[in-house]
Design goal:
Blueprint: H1 2-10, H2 12-46, E1 57-60, E2 63-65, E3 68-70, E4 73-75, H3 77-115, H4 125-138
Antiparallel strand pairs: 1-4, 2-3
Helix pairs in contact: 2-3
Length: 139
Amino acid sequence: MFTEFKKFISKGNVLEMAVGLIMAVYFGAIVKSLVDHIIMPPIGMLLGNVDFSSLKVTLQQASMNGDVAVPEVAISYGMFLNTIITFIIVAFAIFLVVKAYNSMKARMEKKEALETPAAPPAPTKEEVLLTEIRDLLKK
């Protein structure tokens, strides 16, 4: 079982997948920062100095119950809006990458098809007959 696992891990695809996953995580972090710190502040300013990350519907205020602090219960729809915008930007970026990859792949396949020499045409009936006659005369 260990040897199978070692063989699986040593394949190139696993390493490529791990690198892709790491890149995706950090790409997501960059896009989240872009949305939270660059895109949403101007939109919030245009809408009357609204900070989307603080938009929420409070169901229960935070309070003190003796020595125990009761936390606030709220629906943070502003954070949800930020997450939706982040998702849309990431999805669009992935769409562009996949589209570029597919067009590059299509160009490479087209180039390979042009470079591959065409198979010689099959011999005609006369050529086949002449080849048979030649072979019989050689005998």
